[in-house]
Amino acid sequence: MKSYRYILILFLGLVLSAFSLKDHPSIYFFNGSDKSLKGITALQNSVLKLEGSALNVRTKQEEEAPGIEIKGNWDLSKCSQLVLEITNHDLLGDLPLTVVLENKNANMGKRKGVFLDRIYIPAQKTNKIIIDLPNTLPHPELDEQLLGMRMTPFTKSGLISNIDLSEVVCLSVYVNKPRYDWNWSINYIKAEIGDRKPNPAWMNLGEKDFFPFIDQYGQFKFQDWLGKIHHDQELQNAHQKEIANLEQYPGPNERSKFGGWKNGPKLKATGAFRVEKIEGKWWMIDPEGYLFWSHGVVRVTPHSAITPLDGRKHYFADLPKKDDSFTEFYTTHDELLKPYYTARNIDSTYDFSAANIKRKYGENWREIYASLAHQRLKSWGLNTIANSSDKQIFMQRKTVYTDRIELKSPYIEGSKGMWWKFNDPFDPRFTSDLRRQLLERENELNDPWCLGFFVDNEINWGGEATLAEWTLQSPATQPAKLAFVQTLKDKYKTIAQLNSVWKASFKDWTALLESREKVPSGSKADCIIFSKTITEAYFSKVRIEFKKVAPNKLYLGCRFARSNINAVTIGAKYCDVMSYNIYAHTLDNFKLPNNLDKPVLIGEFHFGALDRGLFHPSLIKTQNQIERGQAYFNYVQSALKHPNIIGTHWHQFADQATTGRFDGENFQVGMVDICDTPYWETVEKVREIGYRLYEIRQGKKLEKGKSPYSDYIDY
Questions:
Q1: 3 state DSSP class of 429
Q2: What order do you get walking across the sheet with 274-278 strand by strand?
Q3: What is the average per-residue pLDDT within 572-578?
Q4: Total domains in the fold of the chain
Q5: Between β-strands 294-297 and 274-278, what pairing exists: parallel, antiparallel or unpaired?
Q6: How far apart are CA 614 and CA 659, in angstroms?
Q7: Paired residues of 87 in beta bridges
Q8: Residue 238 resides in a domain
């Protein structure tokens, strides 16, 4: 009888709870059914329009952060969640949105008076997004001291942030550095009243007890998690467990010497990689003539977790003293990233990842780690060491690899880059620099294990007219500017005719050359034409010089991140393979513009979570490691089903430093953590799809049920 009474009480409780939720009070920032745009303004040339009960927002690719801003006065001190219902009308993939709340004197750079979170809306979907609101920081002065990190222990995942919720004056929703023009709608934005999650106990620590907050392994001191290393013996234990796992799974059967499909069609063997379209799908062909699909990982290196120390030594416990054998890790560096530290005048660093590898493998750590890298990749079903990896590892010639060149020739001075400014293809040093950098890789040029080379990375192409506009804002001696002005002279004959069209008032051609002001409004048509000319010069000159020096290697493109239709269309004429860095959940809706039909290589993607001690979940957040592994599987599966895509390269092999690299990135993105321990949940799913790579590419359906690789190791 008591059990029936208990069930009745439970049922009544659920009913009351349901009524309570239904009547849950809310504070609205925007409600489409009110048909009002009060307090709402467009950010950066966005177009806003009320359509039915939704606010339609159209944002442009060339803007930095287009979207909407809502101003007012809201007391959210009793609210627990921010709720948004948003529709992504496009087929371009996940719509990436940034949501920001601000106080009156907010300072984004100092994380003061600001709450920020990032959300993603799948293609042609309407999603209800729930964001937990933060508690008040007991010691906001501590967070203000934490510099050089994208997210800190106080701001990770957006759950905690330095904002006074009782005095919110602005909410904004925008696309940060958009890759495309986007079309999206907001149905409503509201804050719901309720109890917030409590602060963790360590957050009440004062400055004396909080610092240092990073242990000798580079891990956060005040939390524990599955796989955290507490002493060196745990490193040895993890290694022994992994060796047993690698022996159990030595790698997929029926692979060619280079990782190609040994049971598939056999084509002509040329001794080098090439691309070919076969039965409606693009493929790479390996040097022996077998079909090859590149399943790889970027930055296979022991130096993933180098972190700056300048002004931050008090963050770290037990940094080695002068006479310690671990002092070498003050000077180790990553070959690709070293120039980024130098450009930012970062003098002092420490390499936690390599230090932990030495603790794990001993004095011969470099050789052991390099050999183990190849064993790991094969065991995990991977067949490519992607770009930005350690030469000592990939030049062992046991796993296919790619390399990347970043041109260092003179820039268009008026340009703005994502990483570096735009190289001036009209400068004679443009081609000589590329030739020099290729010849520096002489051992790779005729190596059959080398797929090819990327040239540059995530160039900022801007809009259709941007390159020429930047050129006009450059010095009079800029080679591209001299070429542009000459084309204008040829077209307009006199400066008066140009002034008439451009709505300008240049005294003479010399005045145009010397001007570095914002370009006149009437110049856009000419700027679009010359931007195409610059783009054509860039890609054509790279290809000509590339094929002179490396005729047997694939020119893998420039790793598009932000681009425009002209850059992509012109690039397709000259690249052997188009490369894109695409951070999204799947590639189901990816397509090249203008009906282009070219092979495509995904140069970067990743997912991360916050359940293993890091403060930033990466560019695409998942809830935990299980979900993260499944996200990897889904992404690669969608790529395998796409007829144009010939490979995916995960970014990156190991986690970044907990306290950030040169630009503050401190993402949980590794297949292994900062202590070189694999994330087994991810490895399981990498194996599951890697071992069946060619079956899936050929269209065979996977059987549902338990993965044959689901026995991942408990730490």
A1: helix
A2: 274-278, 281-285, 291-292
A3: 98
A4: 2
A5: unpaired
A6: 9
A7: 126, 185
A8: yes
The answer to whether 609 touches 628, Cβ cutoff 8 Å, is: yes
CB atoms within 10 A of CB 306: 24
Say if strands 182-193 and 26-31 run parallel, antiparallel, or are unpaired: antiparallel
Q: What is the mean pLDDT of residues 87-111?
A: 89
pLDDT band, very low/low/confident/very high, at 405 (cuts 50, 70, 90): very high
Q: Are 197 and 261 in a shared domain? A: no
Domain membership of residue 464 (yes or no) is: no
CATH value at residue 38:
2.60.120.430
Domain span holding position 300: 232-388+582-697
User: Are 64 and 187 in the same domain?
Assistant: yes
According to DSSP, residue 101 is labeled E
What pLDDT, on the 0 to 100 scale, is given for residue 706? 56
474-503 pLDDT tens trace: 999 999 999 999 999 999 999 999 999 999
Q: How many CB atoms lie within 10 A of CB 87?
A: 19
Taking each helix axis as running N to C, give the angle between helix 352-361 and helix 365-379, from 0 to 180 degrees, rounded to the nearest 10.
90
Nearest to 712 by CA among 606, 630, 619: 630
Whether the predicted pLDDT of 22 surpasses 70: no
Strands (DSSP E) found in 125-167: 126-132
Place of tokens 């002065």: 141
- 99 and 206 belong to one structural domain: yes
In a domain, 382, yes or no: yes
Provide the pLDDT for residue 5.
Answer: 47
130 and 166 fall within a common domain: yes
As beta bridge partners, residue 579 has 601
Secondary structure of residue 47 in the 3-state scheme: strand
Which strands make up the sheet holding 645-650, listed edge to edge?
554-555, 450-455, 400-405, 384-385, 294-297, 645-650, 600-604, 578-581
Computed over its alpha carbons, how large is the radius of gyration of the chain? 27
| 609 and 640 assigned to the same domain | yes
Q: Which of 312, 307, 295 shows the shortest CA–CA distance to 355?
A: 307
* Cα first-last separation, the chain: 46
Q: How many CB atoms lie within 10 A of CB 520?
A: 18
Name the band, by pLDDT with cuts 50, 70 and 90, for residue 8.
very low
**What percentage of the chain has pLDDT greater than the value 70?**
94
Tens digit of pLDDT for each residue in 32-91?
888 778 889 999 999 999 999 999 999 998 788 999 999 999 999 999 999 999 999 998
380: left (phi over 0), alpha (psi -120 to 50) or beta: alpha
Whether residue 337 has pLDDT greater than 90: no
Signed CA dihedral, 334, 335, 339, 342: sign only: positive
Residues 684-707 have pLDDT tens digits of 999 999 999 999 999 887 766 556
Say if 258 falls within a structural domain: yes
Beta strands in 567-629 (DSSP E): 578-581, 600-604
Q: Which amino acid is at 301?
A: T
What is the bridge-based pairing of β-strands 281-285 and 274-278?
Answer: antiparallel
Indicate whether 199 and 66 sit together in one domain.
yes
> Can you give the pLDDT at residue 110?
74
d(CA 591, CA 587): 9
Tokens of 530: 């010359």
**Does 176 share its domain with 244?**
no
SS3 of 364-403: CHHHHHHHHHHHHHHHCCCCEECCCCCHHHHCCCCCEEEE
Question: Domain with 671 in it: what CATH number?
Answer: 3.20.20.80
CA 696 distance to own-chain centroid: 26
- Main-chain dihedrals φ then ψ at residue 168, nearest 5 degrees: -80, 130
| Residues 185, 275 within the same domain | no
Tell which phi-psi region holds residue 158, choosing left (phi > 0), alpha (psi between -120 and 50) or beta.
left
Phi-psi region of 188 (alpha: psi -120 to 50; beta: other; left: phi over 0): beta
In 3D, which of 656, 684, 683 has the Cα closest to residue 668? 656
Q: At residue 52, what are phi and psi to the nearest 5 degrees?
A: 65, -125
The number of beta carbons lying within 10 Å of the beta carbon of residue 706 is: 8
Among candidates 89, 90, 42, 87, which has minimal Cα distance to 67? 42
